[in-house]
Every structure is written in structure tokens, then in C-alpha cells.
Amino acid sequence: MAPTVLLLQLAVRVLALPLYLLDFLGVWSWICKRCFPFFLARFSSVYNRQMASTKRGLFGSLQEHAGPSGALCLLELGCGTGANFQFYPPGCRVTCVDPNPNFEKFLIQSIAENRHVQFERFVVAAGEDMRPVADGSVDAVVCTLVLCSVQNQERILQEVRRVLRPGGAFYFLEHVAAERSTWSHFWQQVLEPVWYLVFDGCSLTRESWKTVERAGFSKLQLQRLQAPLSWPLVRPHICGYAVK
């Protein structure tokens, strides 16, 4: 199967040659950083409708990890447009981290639509280096559709454990690689190089559950599922939470 994958990858790369040229010239990254938030705003609306029950089930236990004051201090890693705000418990204090400053105006809109959460600040930073966030300062970290596109998953989870207080929890919902020897995995491999370019660094073939399992949390609840999404290649998902 490997030669077939390589041959089809080559064909897809040839078809996407104009994009590769723009990327070589440094133009495509500039376009993505400015246009991707508009795409994600539309995608997140559809994704939330299709994944609403999964998100409600996942985030339903967030309040259990609130600190002694009873107020939940939450950090959302790779916040994007703020699509998760509607699923957070009332009174939750939210700090958002994202490397793309162009998401800020979408966050402002989400804040206005979700008055039940208390927005703290927007930190423009990569998840691998969240120095503006103090050690042990948050009760929960939320990460949805982010591990697919970060540079270093291991470093991300080190930072997550650093900013969590003892007993704090890391909540995740991620699309991942399909099971090997399936047609979904075959086409994920074929389209991976162009997908990565078109969708601002998103990878179809990451086995993110392995990184989470190795991260050193004291407790891990992890579930694999087939998400009810229109795009078959991103249906394989993992979700759950891990306790520091």
C-alpha cells in the first residue's frame, strides 16, 4: 500500500502546486493567519451543532475541579473563536491562549454572546511556551482540535501540567488518525501533505492519544469515538480528561 500512497500523494501535490509556490514565497502563511479565523468561525458553528452532546457530556464535570473558592479558573489552549464558551459552567473565569492574534475580534463576539462566563484575558502565545501563565494557577485546561496542529505535543502537555494546580484537570477533544488498514487511514495518508498546508498546519495522521497517555498524569479517562461529522477523514476522535 505504501507505493500507492506515495504515488497518490505526488498526484495531489502536483494539483496543489500553486499553493506550494505561494508557501515557498512566504505568502500562503500570511493568507492563512488572516483568513483561517473566518473559516474556523463557520466550521466551529457546524462542528458545535454536530458535537453538542459530546461537548456537553465532556465539559459537564468541569465544575468539579473548581478551587476552594468555588469559582472555576479555566485556561483554554488554542481558543480559536471561543466556540467552547457556551459549554462552560456559569461563573467560570476563562483565560484564552492562541498564537494567532487575528482571533481576538471573534473572541470578543463570543464573550458578548456568553455572558455566563467571566473572560479574564487573551494571551497571544504558542502552547509550547505559556510563560505569561503562572505555575499552578488554573483549575482546568481545555484543548479542542488543537493537538493536530501544534509543533510539539510533548512540550504542550508539559506546559499544561505546569500551569495546572495539583488535582487540576486537562480536558481534550481531538480528531486523530484512523485505525490502520482502514480506507480512512489510507486517504488520511494520501491527503496529509496538502491538508497540512491548506488547513494551517493541521495533521490528519497524528496518534495523539499516545502522547496524552505518556504525559504523566495521575488519572486518565480517554475514549475513542467516531464523530458524527460530514467529513469522514476527521471522524476519528478521542475525548476525555486527565488529572494532574
From TrEMBL:
InterPro entries documented for this protein: Methyltransf_11, SAM-dependent_MTases_sf, Thiol_S-MT
Coiled-coil regions, chain positions: none
Family matches, as SUPFAM superfamilies: S-adenosyl-L-methionine-dependent methyltransferases
Keywords: Methyltransferase, Transferase
Domain Methyltransferase type: 75-172
Molecular function in Gene Ontology: S-adenosylmethionine-dependent methyltransferase activity
One Pfam family hit: Methyltransf_11
Keyword presence, Methyltransferase: yes
GO biological processes: methylation
Keyword set includes Transferase: yes
This protein's name: Methyltransferase like 7A
Lineage of source species: Eukaryota, Metazoa, Chordata, Craniata, Vertebrata
